[in-house]
Amino acid sequence: MISLSSSANAQFIGINADVAIAYSAAPGSVSGGYVGISHPAPFFPNIGYSSISFSEKEDKTDTSKNKTSVSLNTNTTIKTIILFYNVPFPVVTISVGFGYGSQNLNTGMETKTTIVETYEGNKIDPDNSDLKTSVSEAFMQIGLPFWNTIEFHLGYHHMSVTSIDITSKKSTNFRGTYTIEKKNYSGGMTTIGVQVAF
Fold this sequence. Notes:
The chain is an all-beta fold and about 200 residues long. The chain has a single domain, classed as Beta Barrel (Porin). Helix content is about 0%, strand content about 60%. Strands 1-2-3-4-5-9-10-11 form an 8-stranded antiparallel β-barrel. A hairpin with a 7-residue loop joins strand 1 and strand 2.
């Protein structure tokens, strides 16, 4: 991913570091980013790693009962391993690739939900519901090289996951009746960062 306007023989190892600035499925602020390593060897893909974390809070009410509600606090983390190629273009550099995350790779999507229910004015002991599921990812990055060693770039990572019921792993049943829809945290992560070549 270093300057593709120069010859392939001039390329060295490139280290990428990006910061996540947004995730379309997150209700608020996010943390995380992307790191990658580029090399000049032909045909072999480059490798990267992405991570995004965010939180969400929901309150649901049972309108058929007095003072009955449930609060859901969910922390979500999505991690993937990416294989990508650098595509030669004049002026800018473009990288495209695919990523994947699963439990056996120490990646994937993990949600941790704390459930606090109040039933007819009495607060029930908190419960937890933790889920893990696989993730697939499409990756694209556009960079603007400066000299032969530094590049500033903008990245986009589209994460695809299945819809989940964030309360499905709770240990006790709800006492009230609530409408809790499944969550789909598929979305796009936007990153900005820099690459330094050695």
